[in-house]
């Protein structure tokens, strides 16, 4: 999706349409894919559509980082997110600690960070607050990887698609946060 966004559709076009893509994408992930669970084949197709559009959602951020000459930053952010994700999943698989109970505190923390990011967009427009928010999202996403990996092992998700969706969203948030942090540090 990000490749198609950068090379076929265009960063500028997706920048202008970002809210018209982001809001339906978010709502489809929250409500659409869970509604498709009765038919696993359609739910899997829905997950692939969701991940493709997720790449389109990231295109404006990737384009901004690349415009500053940070093509390597995009690769580094992806590599770092992949290594972190894999390491955290392996840790969750082998850990004796039960991370499945972290759901409520993580959702509260994520809600606070979400409200803080909205306030920063509307009122403050502070790069320092953006860095803090990206760091907090990265940390929260790391704990979500631990929790969701153990939930998948314990069979807490009704279908494999829902477990895959949870892990994809965690990876998406980690990659996006690292892209912001590394893009700012590269500037």
What does this structure look like?
This protein is mainly alpha-helical and 187 residues long. Helices cover 86% and strands 0% of the residues. It has 8 helices and no strands. α4 packs across α5 (71-94). The radius of gyration is 17 Å and the shape is globular.
How would you briefly describe this protein structure?
This protein is an all-alpha fold and 187 residues long.
What is the multimeric organization of the chains shown? single chain
Q: Could you tell me the radius of gyration in angstroms?
A: 17 Å
Average pLDDT across residues? 92
Characterize the main sheet.
none
Gross morphology: globular
Quick one: how many beta strands? 0
Strand content: under 5%
Q: Would you identify the regions where 5 or more consecutive residues have pLDDT less than 50?
A: none
Features:
single chain, 187 residues, mainly alpha, globular
Topology:
Elements: H1 2-9, H2 11-16, H3 18-35, H4 40-67, H5 71-94, H6 103-124, H7 127-154, H8 160-186
Helix pairs in contact: 1-4, 3-4, 4-5, 4-8, 5-7, 5-8, 6-7, 7-8
